[in-house]
């Protein structure tokens, strides 16, 4: 079972490293480098002093010093672009408590000046359409019915697990459709290659896969079309399970139960890679491919560091999705 302590520890290591890698480019603010180094230092100290709970300490440092400031500053930019200078200034001033920097202090001063000019009538007020504290954002799931349906199916399957008391009971998960290689090779229960992708071992396992699908799936579905996205998701899950069964038969892996949609999700990542490689002439493809490769790298490190996670299932799903992505052509433009 994936433990929250390991997940937080993983985030507290990979996120600062990603920040440091991004800060190497010219013109990057040194304050983010300092924040990332501080998170890594706290993580190292926590690992040495109280290893059992190191993830919670490191995760708290990551949340306070990197995650919340990044989210807050993004919101400041949104408010500024919509001419809500008063709200933007207040939020930027609050973020300064977590991320004190010269750049942010200057930003607060500029926003204060813009707020004064706006209240004096020198700058037009915010548009009426976006007035108020709630500002409408684009819906990520817009034109992504398959992603919505898959999220609902995964949650529904988890509710079935709860009703059977099977959430952390592998014997009952096997009864519901979990993958066990011998049941496929000797019992000819081939349906398990697919059903295992809709079962999860604990709510944290479910939330991670559903969130990854929510983040990665909609844009790909809009790019290749709903039917092809559904085929890619399901075939990646089958390919992931079949790969694990084959590796078990070849004695590369020890027999073990397997559940989870992560093979399907990694198939979506692989499909993105294959699809983008075919779109080499399109603008911004190189940056998007780099993002995909970063996801693959981070997932691989996570698999190595985290107990009870099937790297083989993830890699088999990734490879299956990659070849499917190479075969995909753009869907109807949206």
In terms of DSSP E residues, the strand content is under 5%
Q: How many helix segments? A: 14
Rg estimate, integer Å: 23 Å
Overall 3D shape = globular
What is the oligomeric state here?
Answer: single chain
The pLDDT mean sits at 86
Summarize the helix and strand pattern as letters. Answer: HHHHHHHHHHHHHH
Structural class: mainly alpha
Description:
- With 334 residues, this protein is mainly α.
- 70% of the residues lie in helices and 0% in strands.
- Helix 1 crosses helix 3, helix 6 packs antiparallel against helix 10 (203-224) and helix 10 (203-224) packs parallel to helix 12.
- The longest helix is centred in the first third of the chain and has 28 residues, at 54-81.
- Mean pLDDT is 86; it is low at 130-135.
């Amino acid at each position: 079972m994936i433990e929250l302590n390991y997940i937080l520890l993983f985030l507290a290591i990979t996120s600062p490293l990603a920040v440091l890698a991004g800060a190497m480019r010219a013109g990057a603010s040194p304050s983010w480098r300092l924040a990332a180094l501080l998170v890594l230092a706290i993580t190292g100290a926590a690992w040495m002093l109280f290893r059992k709970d190191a993830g919670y300490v490191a995760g708290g440092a990551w949340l306070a010093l990197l995650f919340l400031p990044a989210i807050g500053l993004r919101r400041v930019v949104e408010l500024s672009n919509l001419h809500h200078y008063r709200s933007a200034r207040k939020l930027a001033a609050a973020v300064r408590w977590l991320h004190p920097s010269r750049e942010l202090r200057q930003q607060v001063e500029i926003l204060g000046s813009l707020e004064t000019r706006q209240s004096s009538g020198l700058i037009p007020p915010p548009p009426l359409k976006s007035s108020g504290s709630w500002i409408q954002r684009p819906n990520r799931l817009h034109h992504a019915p398959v992603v919505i349906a898959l999220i609902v199916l995964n949650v529904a399957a988890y509710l079935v697990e709860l009703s059977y008391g099977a959430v952390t009971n592998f014997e009952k998960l096997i009864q519901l459709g979990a993958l066990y290689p011998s049941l496929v090779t000797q019992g000819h229960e081939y349906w398990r290659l697919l059903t295992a992708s809709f079962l999860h071992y604990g709510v944290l396992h479910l939330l991670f896969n559903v969130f990854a699908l929510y983040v990665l799936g909609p844009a790909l579905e809009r790019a290749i079309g709903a039917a092809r996205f559904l085929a890619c998701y399901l075939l990646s899950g089958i390919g992931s399970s079949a790969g694990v069964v084959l590796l078990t038969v070849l004695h590369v892996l020890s027999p073990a139960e397997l559940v989870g949609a992560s093979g399907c999700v990694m198939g979506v990542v692989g499909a993105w890679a294959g699809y983008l490689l075919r779109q080499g002439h399109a603008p911004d493809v190189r940056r998007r491919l780099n993002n995909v490769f970063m996801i693959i790298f981070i997932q691989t490190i996570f698999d190595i560091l985290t107990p009870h996670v099937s790297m083989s299932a993830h890699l088999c799903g990734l490879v299956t999705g990659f070849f499917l992505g190479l075969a995909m052509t753009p869907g109807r433009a949206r």
